[in-house]
Design brief:
Largest sheet: 24 strands, antiparallel, barrel
Helix content: under 10%
Structural class: mainly beta
Family: Belongs to the fimbrial export usher family.
CATH topology of one domain: Immunoglobulin-like
Strand content: over 45%
Number of helices: 6
Organism: Pseudomonas helleri
Subcellular location: Cell outer membrane
CATH architecture of one domain: Sandwich
CATH class of one domain: Mainly Beta
Number of strands: 58
Radius of gyration: 34 Å
GO molecular function: fimbrial usher porin activity
Keywords: Cell outer membrane, Fimbrium biogenesis, Membrane, Signal, Transmembrane, Transmembrane beta strand, Transport
Length: 858
């Protein structure tokens, strides 16, 4: 008895297999072309009933019956977007079958414009004539549910690994979303009050076509034994969409000026910016990072002009935040709230790398609107700004821009040069003129930027920048503040920024240095630098030990709070303990005090990790849990003199579409996500980035934090599937635009498994090779010799259909009760015939051992 289930379908049915059966059958075919009928030698079939079988679906090499099939599209070596593909008989071969490449599918191929005009169509313009592109080959394969398209590379637009051209981008489906980031803290001091706080920020949004509508919120609730306060505010309302034809992003509403030439400020209006995210990854820009040291388990809040853009809990010790959006520019305010109640603040200048633009390419940013304040609304006159960067040649780039309103004008012009082995450098000059109530200020600002990767020394200057401004130079944001507060503010003189890292591989040492110095014409300098040095080594039988040193200094002056300065040091040594644990001991100097601590960190499993620490005056614990519904962090500490604290944070969201909804974890708010439909089957593990999630009661799972404009893959985690679930399609891929809600279905069959012995009403068996489908039209089995079939996805009382000869022949009703051991027991079930098939029994006996199954079907 032979089974064809794993040979001719994509379902992993547990049939009794005949290895090499297909090869044995085809090897008996003498010189048959793909478009011709295939004749099978039935002598090799060890069947009890040689007159009762149906191989019509295999009668032609590669033949696919006319119809529509879900298939993954493979273009050369790349796979993307599973979709329905129709197969029709060609006009010159009524018995044949050919894949129909619809205009919508052809658009996704990424053909260059000059070749699109050469295309020829058939079936009244519904299908592409593949002969119109010499060298193009199209092959359908039902066994892997794939349509393979081979195209000469000369026809295709530029592409890169994990990146697709705009013709393949997916705008997603319409839907609603609510993302949140909440942190609750309770700090208690013996013989004093208990202070409880709840802070949070997030995004409410809606998607409609290519448009993304968003509203950002932030809030704080605080109370102690004597007072309470609460505050909830909407930080901005805005809408945006990608404009692929311009490689740009269009935004309307409340926004911040993201400029490479001018400082940032808040406004209400419209902007159209070249979007580096729409470029291949190797052509994209720079995102700032925040480095610091937490004395205890702490909350880090990063904001810009009052708007919180990032908030997280960090464990005691050095922290490095590198996942900020690369659209962030200008000065970032960093606030570190320790669990002992102390607070430290510093600023990070997100300087940019030198201007270099690909030859022949122009990048631009334009915006217009009215400056606004998050709390007081609009102020100032309507402004307009524009900037550009033009790649003149392989070595030179020219850039510049202007910004103006009724009383302020600034013009910038600069050039960037690729110095090849010496790195890259750019220099620009900005001239500004501001008219205030009682004065007119005019001055210039000069900026020099440099970047170099020293391959031979295994080191890199990420960016080094210097900016000098004349005393009467006023930036746009300084001009706005002067108008609002009455007196000139600002007076920036010089800004130095540098980031350097170096690896000494032979010694196992890595060094990192960051330095910022801001000087003013009318106040003391602000300076911040941090230096880290780490060495990895082995000591006897102890492997992978590390020694790290962090030095930092922060000195800044705020107009309201006065001078603040701090210098610190953090020295730590660690070594592995157990399978995944790490034990470390450290000494920390901050605020002119020394503290000592020992920490142990480990992973419980792929979803849970923890850290325990003890110091000379406290003990604390930190636990991180990656859940299906949210990422959750807990931290607790107890210090001398009865000071205790408890903190918990949660990051997650909810997404709702017409197809369904789900709660999910999320690190960023309002971002791109993918909803996976497991065809209504719950508790299916789905893997995207990082740890897998599981489909909810309605068979929906959401993968958040998807990289926009990058190819994204989602798959069923086959190793952790429930025993009664099978995945007939386990992988899907797509490329989503920014903020999109992607939607894909992964075919999953849920139900019991059992060996069924099928019988027609007259007692005969359906033919060998007949197929069985459930009510969702999913293949659940192929009939073997004697009518036996191993079925998966059996649901009590469900009706399945049995097909052979190219059409449905009878229906099969599953029993209400199934034996406990479905793998062993064989059930005898009758296949009921429809009225049109009442005279049908087993197929007419065949007398010739060499049969033409195509003629038999017809």
């Amino acid at each position: 008895m032979y089974g064809l289930s794993t040979l001719f379908t994509r379902s992993a049915f547990k049939s009794i297999l005949c290895p090499g059966l297909l090869g044995g059958l085809i090897s008996m075919c003498d010189g048959v072309k793909a478009a011709e009928d295939v004749q099978f030698n039935t002598d090799i079939l060890d069947l009890n009933d040689r007159s009762n079988f149906d191989l019509s679906q295999f009668s032609r090499s590669g033949f696919i019956l006319p119809g529509a099939y879900p298939m993954a599209i493979q273009v050369n070596t790349e796979t993307f977007s599973e979709q329905m593909v129709a197969f029709y008989p060609p006009e010159d071969d009524p018995k044949g079958s050919q894949a129909c490449l619809s205009p919508q599918l052809v658009e996704q191929l990424g053909l260059k414009k000059e070749f699109v005009n050469q295309l020829v169509w058939w079936k009244e313009g519904e299908c592409l004539a593949t002969g119109s592109l010499p060298g193009m080959e199209v092959t359908g394969d039902l066994s892997s549910a794939a349509l393979r398209i081979s195209l000469p590379q000369a026809y295709l637009e530029y592409s890169a690994p994990n990146w697709d051209p705009p013709s393949r981008w997916d705008e997603g489906v319409s839907g609603l979303l609510l993302d949140y980031n909440l942190t609750g803290q309770s700090i208690h001091q013996r013989h004093d009050s208990t202070r409880n706080t709840l802070t949070g920020n997030g995004t409410v949004g809606a998607n409609a076509g290519a448009w993304r509508f968003r509203a950002d919120w932030q809030g704080r609730i605080e109370n102690d034994d004597t007072s309470s306060a609460q505050k909830l505010e909407w930080s901005r309302f805005y809408a945006y969409r990608a404009v692929p034809s311009l490689q740009a992003r269009l935004m309307v509403g409340e926004n911040y000026l993201y400029s490479d030439l001018f400082d940032s400020f808040r406004y209400t209006g419209v902007s159209l910016n070249s979007d580096d995210n729409q470029l291949p990854p190797n052509l994209r820009g720079y995102a700032p990072e925040v480095v610091g040291v937490a004395n205890t388990n702490a909350k880090v809040i990063i904001s810009q002009q009052g708007r919180v853009i990032y908030e997280t809990l960090v464990a005691a010790g050095p922290f490095r935040i590198q996942d900020l959006n690369d659209a962030v520019s200008g000065t970032l305010d960093v606030r570190v709230e320790e669990q002992d109640g102390s607070v430290s603040t510093f600023k990070v200048e997100s300087a940019s790398i030198p201007f270099l633009t690909r030859p022949g390419t122009v990048r631009y940013k334009i915006a217009s609107g009215r400056p606004s304040d998050m709390h007081d609304g609009g102020h100032g006159s309507t402004f307009a700004t524009g900037e550009f960067s033009w790649g003149i040649s392989n070595g030179w780039s020219l850039y510049g821009g202007a910004i103006t309103d009724n009383n302020y004008k600034a013009l910038t012009l600069g050039a960037g040069r690729d110095l090849l082995g010496f790195g890259a450098v750019s220099l620009d000059v900005t001239r500004a003129r501001a008219v205030l109530d009682h004065d007119t200020l005019s001055g210039a600002s000069y900026r020099l930027s440099y970047s170099k990767r020293f391959e031979e020394y295994d080191s890199q200057v990420t960016f080094a920048g210097y900016r000098f401004s004349e005393k009467n130079y006023m930036s746009m944001s300084e001009y706005l503040d002067a108008n609002q507060y009455g007196d000139p503010v600002g007076g920036s003189k010089a800004l130095y920024t540098a980031t350097f890292n170096k690896q000494f591989r032979d010694a196992g040492v890595t060094a990192y240095l960051n330095y910022t110095n801001q000087s003013w014409w009318d106040r003391p300098d602000n300076e911040r630098w941090s230096f880290s040095l780490a060495r990895y080594f082995n000591l006897g039988s102890v492997k992978n030990m590390s020694l790290s040193l962090n030095l930092f200094r922060n000195q800044q002056r705020d107009l309201r709070s006065g001078q603040e300065s701090s210098t610190g040091m953090y020295l730590s040594v660690s070594f592995p303990l157990g399978k995944s644990g790490t034990l470390s001991s450290s000494v920390n100097r901050a605020l002119d005090k020394y503290s000592y601590s020992t920490r142990f960190s480990d992973r419980i499993n792929e979803r849970n990790s923890y850290q325990l620490s003890a110091s000379d005056n406290s003990v604390s614990g930190y636990l991180n849990h990656t859940g299906d519904l949210a990422d959750v962090d807990w931290s607790a500490s107890a210090q001398e003199k009865g000071h205790t604290s408890l903190s918990v944070s949660a990051r997650g969201g909810g997404t709702v579409t017409a197809q369904g909804g789900a709660l999910h974890r999320s690190s960023s708010t309002g971002g791109t996500r993918l909803m996976v439909d497991t065809t209504g089957v719950p508790d299916v593990p789905v893997r995207g980035y990082g740890n897998p999630t599981r489909s909810n009661t309605f068979g929906k799972a959401v993968i958040a934090d998807v990289n926009s404009f990058n190819r994204t893959a989602a798959s069923v985690d086959l190793e952790n599937l429930p025993a009664n679930v099978e995945a007939t399609q386990s992988v899907t891929q797509l490329t989503l635009t920014e903020g999109a809600i992607g939607y894909r279905t992964l075919e999953v069959i849920s139900g019991e498994k059992a060996m069924i012995e099928l019988r027609l009403p007259d007692g005969s068996a359906p033919p060998f090779g007949a197929t069985v489908k459930n009510e969702k039209q999913q293949n659940t089995g192929i009939v073997n010799d004697g009518g036996s079939v191993y079925l998966s996805g059996i649901r009590r009382g469900e009706t399945m259909t049995v097909s052979w000869g190219g059409r449905e022949r009878c229906t099969l009703v599953m029993p209400e009760t199934l034996p406990e051991d479905g793998l062993v027991t064989t059930l005898s079930q009758t296949c009921h015939l429809p009225a049109s098939e009442k005279s049908l029994s087993a197929p007419t006996p065949l007398t010739d051992k060499r049969i033409d199954t195509e003629k038999k079907t017809s």
